[in-house]
Write a structure and sequence with these properties.
With about 100 residues, the chain is mainly α. It has one domain. Helices cover about 70% and strands about 0% of the residues. The protein has five helices and no strands. Helix 2 runs antiparallel to helix 3 and helix 3 packs antiparallel against helix 4. The longest helix has 23 residues. The two termini are about 20 Å apart.
């Protein structure tokens, strides 16, 4: 995990529950927009099905964590483990710097 991503985690951990859920909504929005690059705009054609699946799995994991936080579920993935998983996936997808830049706006 890079220093930049650790800084993102540190900021996230300082948020209250409402703002964590909101932050995760923003992350979901950013990643879903980037996932659009896996298909041809205006058509039904998927040009990168393997990457689209990776994006979908990442979106699923983030939305699950968001749901658990909103519901007050304490027996969920620990935040540091969750952030490490996100980092590994966005690194694989090659979108780390874009995600960090958009989150810092």
């Amino acid at each position: 995990m890079t220093t930049e991503w650790k800084t993102v985690l540190e900021k996230y951990l300082k948020l209250d529950t409402f703002h964590q859920v909101t932050w995760l909504s923003n992350l979901l929005y950013i990643i879903s927009m980037m996932a659009r690059s896996t298909y041809e705009a205006g058509t039904e054609k998927v040009i990168q099905p393997e990457l689209l699946r990776r994006y979908n799995e990442l979106l699923h994991r983030i939305s699950t964590q968001q749901f658990f936080i909103a519901r007050g579920v304490l027996n969920r993935m620990p935040d540091d483990v969750f952030f490490e998983m996100i980092y590994e996936e966005i690194e694989y997808l090659g979108i780390t710097s874009s995600v960090i830049n958009l989150l810092n706006r």
